[in-house]
Amino acid sequence: MPDTKQLRNRIRSVNSTLHLTHAMELVAASKIKKASERMSGSNEYARAAAEAMAVLSACPACEKSPYLRSGASDEIRLMVIAGDRGMAGGYNANIYRLAREYPDAKIIPVGKRAFERYGGEVLYGAEAFSTSDARKIAEKLCVDFLEGAFGRFGILYTRYVSMMQQEASVRWILPLDKSEAHSGKDILFEPDEAYVMSSLVPEYVTGMIMASVRESFASEVAARRMAMDSAGKNARQMIDDLKIKYNRARQGAITQEITEIVAGSGS
Fold first, then answer.
1. Backbone angle region of 130, left / alpha / beta, with phi > 0 → left and psi within -120 to 50 → alpha
2. Whole-model pTM?
3. H or E element: which one contains 22?
4. Judging by DSSP bridges, how do beta strands 76-81 and 106-110 pair with one another?
């Protein structure tokens, strides 16, 4: 028969875990609205920048742009965006699993968990990641790409589908994709299309990085809320089961004591 003291301690321990998961769920819930608003703003900017790049890519004057062809190197640079914390279900694990499909890629980690995974000093946290951080990375990437240091750059991030669903995805940024290009013959660029493209690409890369980081963070917050909600439900179920066992053990102990008293009084 289970010991009542052990069951009581176990109930107390699980109850402490329940309070922790509930607190983390409340924190995640409080961050969701702000994270979603920032994600929407960044995605809107990224879409506008992508549309501008699609127009420029269709211009004959930009056909020879180095941004439209792979560099001399076969190296792939991959920005991997993970979370700053754990306890978010499969959020970080899904990112790492997808990253393993590119074993030869040079990783640019964003998020404390990514730095723990791939090494190096923590330079960019996912939650505190700023536009200046994105611009600094983008400018360095553009310079290296033009110099032929690498041939392809992508962002491994978590796409926000809904509160219940988030998917690890790769967004390829460089070289520019001409398959999505459309005619910009009715648009006048000053001083010319090639100059505007060369000036806009760093801003485009900055916008795509920022949008990916903010969407990943919104996905992390949503995943953590759902994970803590599930953990809370499991903890409550476990407490209920332990209470049943505790009551049975306590009743058994009382019955045994009564039986011993009756047997002793009859002897």
1. beta
2. 0.85
3. helix 4-57
4. parallel
Percent of the chain residues past pLDDT 70, beyond the cut = 94
Return the pLDDT at 216.
Answer: 96
Q: Which two tokens stand for residue 55?
A: 């127009």
The C-alpha atoms of residue 81 and residue 171 are separated, in whole angstroms, by 12
Contacts with 199 (C-beta within 8 Å, 6 or more apart), sequence order? none
User: What is the pairing mode between strands 76-81 and 152-160?
Assistant: parallel
Mean pLDDT in residue range 231-237: 89
| CA pair distance 219, 217, nearest whole angstrom | 5
Q: Is the pLDDT of residue 8 over 80?
A: yes
Q: What is d(CA 110, CA 40) in angstroms, rounded to the nearest whole number?
A: 20
Q: How far apart are CA 204 and CA 134, in angstroms?
A: 11
Per-residue confidence band for 30, with pLDDT thresholds at 50, 70 and 90: confident
Evaluate the omega torsion of the peptide bond into residue 202 and state whether it is cis, within 30 degrees of 0.
no
Q: How far apart are CA 79 and CA 211, in angstroms?
A: 13
Give first-to-last CA distance, the chain, whole Å. 27
Structure tokens at 261: 């008293």
| Rounded distance between C-alpha atoms, residue 235 and residue 242, angstroms | 10
Tell me what pLDDT residue 179 has: 55
Fill in the DSSP letter of residue 89. T
Helix (H, G, I), strand (E, B) or coil at 156: strand
What CATH architecture does domain 37-226 belong to? 3-Layer(aba) Sandwich (3.40)
Q: For the chain, what's the residue count?
A: 267
Beta bridge partners of residue 108, listed in sequence order: 79
CA angle 171, 172, 176 (to 5 degrees): 135
| Rounded distance between C-alpha atoms, residue 32 and residue 224, angstroms | 10
